[in-house]
Write a structure and sequence with these properties.
Mean pLDDT of chain A: 89
Oligomer: homotetramer
Helix content of chain A: over 70%
Number of helices of chain A: 9
CATH topology of the largest domain in chain A: Tetracycline Repressor, domain 2
Pfam families (chains A, B, C, D): TetR_C_11, TetR_N
Keywords (chains A, B, C, D): DNA-binding, Transcription, Transcription regulation
Structural class of chain A: mainly alpha
Organism (chains A, B, C, D): Stackebrandtia nassauensis (strain DSM 44728 / CIP 108903 / NRRL B-16338 / NBRC 102104 / LLR-40K-21)
Radius of gyration of chain A: 20 Å
CATH superfamily of the largest domain in chain A: Tetracycline Repressor, domain 2
GO molecular function, one term (chains A, B, C, D): transcription cis-regulatory region binding
Largest sheet of chain A: none
Shape of chain A: elongated
Order of helices and strands of chain A: HHHHHHHHH
CATH architecture of the largest domain in chain A: Orthogonal Bundle
Protein name (chains A, B, C, D): Transcriptional regulator, TetR family
DNA sequence: TTCTAACCGAGACGGTACGTCCTGTCTTAGC
DNA sequence: GCTAAGACAGGACGTACCGTCTCGGTTAGAA
């Protein structure tokens, strides 16, 4: 066997077709949803050959994940986690931002697709987690640790669990659509969680 | 009305084929996973005609949901939520039971399928929520209300939020596979939550 | 094996449904053609159960053949072959009658169906031949024999061949739709054939 | 125009699969007959995808017709109609050749299929007539015309009718299987017909 | 007159094939 | 050597009918 898995020369890759494909994928995602999204339709809409897609992405979900990444990069919302010294206020800001994302179709749609895809493709799940979830978790834990050092949290509080106490409820409500997600709700969670871990 | 959608006569439905189909669906789910599950394979394994499936279920996910339901009914785990008067102990029992389910492939697999499917089929999601999630939420809320009346919870605690504070974190950890789910973890959550809502 | 092929009791047969089925078959033949004709559609149109058809007829072609028979019986055109003594005139009458039938959709359609069906079902072909073709051939041969005895045909003429010289050409033109079939054409054939066999 | 019917690029057609499909069709025709012949079985036997068949042929009968054509081309029997000057002898040769074909399963089968198919699909009938029947008719007419010029036929003989007087009887006997088709019979027809049209 | 066996309409059933759609690979021409 | 285009083998889709079966309801002799 002579080099069965030929790997293409990335330096000669057409940037034009890459963007056309990812844009087409995003558009079709919005129009027909992930389940009815086909490689063929993406290629047709992008004016690209199917082979060009298969050459650069292994699966449909990889294309979609890349499309989401492109979409997210476009946004200029890489807000750093605030640290004003007032933990309560900082958490409120962040939890309200998450609530806003839950209500923004621009995030809601892609996020649901990624959750769904991750359930039957663990590798994809790991990648997506790495790219989208862990940064937020890490930043939150950082801020909590800073608050802990400042004596605003019990010294023995398990920060991994505290992060989950913050993200878990809002995530649960969003994922199962059990109730609307408001700023008031975001504040409520912060209240309960801080009540639990205050020294 | 042109009477387009002829509806079959449910009274003449073959119980034998219904069970064969749902059993085949469960088995194939376990063997190849939801994504590679085909109606054709279910019919073949069940010794049924495809039409018999299409006659009684609108989509693949409906078959699978029904299969899960049959599977769940078979189990004799319809444990009533305990109410010993000791809220702390009762919650621990329940949260540990949930932790056990997260680690039991018999529940883990189907549950992930349902979560995934629900994300791109809201109607399916609503049905699944109704059948599997709400009963647990309602029972938990009931127990919390009872505890609240007994003065073990703050009178102004929002029980919907408290339920989410309990279920959200464990659910989050399970869904994103961020860490193992142990009895100790279950206990931890109960501790934090009760600390937050104790009078 | 105990009487595997249960034969139904013909005396209890419902005349009403028999006629409804054959009528429906005739109508559907005219509407959609033999190839697209289905037992299911016949049953639905006739307001009969499928089993009632399968009980009394072995195949679709048997139903259709019966329908044609019913149709033919309805007609009162069982014209006896004329024998005026003038063979030329008598043959013209008969050949013109055949030409008329070729141009009459009432005969053309069914006849084509029977020809077609007979090609891939020899038994059906034998039955159809017996019922529809042989009577005409026999009557014609009879008339030719009478003419032969009267000295209007060569004594050594092979009547089977003469019949085919009469029927073959018109049949050929009809079957292959190579040219219109007129009375003039019918006369022409009689002219040529009589020229060939005149003493 | 919405460009509904995308037409494939014939220049890129796979010759290999075309032949495999037509060969498979021929074989299956011989094995199970036209009625039980399925596109699916042809594709399976040919190792081709069903779409490849549907891409290049509109119907089952079109595939079969093409298969016959390929079969006929393979044969090296494109005998030119003889013209020795002796019309009687030449016609005998041709009529005997036709008789032989009637008795040769290689021709009998396909021809019956085409006759049958032509009866409920006039377009197919037209194509088949063009490809298989008209060449023979034309050649025969040509030879007759040559004989007519040589004074062996009456000057006023209608050659279209004379051709039908030759082909019709043998065709009739073959189609309805009313009697065996022998060389003697072929000769007999030539005798009668020439008797009718001799000057 | 009641019983009972068969027919009847209806339609669910296990199947087969349909014609369409999409997958992932391969081939061709163009730049 | 990447690209657009699209033919190819393969396989699942959801539909239409096949011929068999089972279900009540009706009908017509036999008891």
């Amino acid at each position: 066997m002579t080099e069965a898995t030929r790997k293409p020369d990335a330096s000669r890759r057409s940037q034009r077709s890459r963007e056309a494909i990812l844009t087409a994928a995003m558009e079709l995602m919005a129009e027909v949803g992930y389940a009815k999204l086909t490689i063929e339709a993406i290629a047709a809409r992008a004016g690209a050959g199917k082979q060009t897609i298969y050459r650069w992405w292994p699966t449909k979900s990889a294309v979609v994940l890349d499309a989401f990444r492109l979409n997210a990069e476009t946004q200029e919302d890489e807000v750093d986690f605030p640290d004003t010294g007032d933990l309560d206020a900082d958490l409120r800001i962040v939890m309200r931002a998450i609530a806003d994302e839950c209500n923004n179709p621009r995030y809601d749609g892609p996020a649901r697709v990624m959750i769904a895809e991750a359930q039957h493709d663990p590798e994809f799940g790991a990648e997506a987690r790495e790219a989208f979830l862990l940064p937020a978790i890490t930043a939150t834990k950082e801020r909590l640790r800073s608050g802990q050092r400042a004596g605003q949290l019990r010294a023995d509080a398990d920060l991994d669990v505290v992060v989950e106490l913050l993200f878990g409820p809002i995530h649960h409500r969003w994922l199962h659509s059990t109730a609307p997600i408001t700023h008031a709700y975001a504040d409520q969670i912060v209240d309960y969680v801080l009540a639990a871990v205050r020294p």
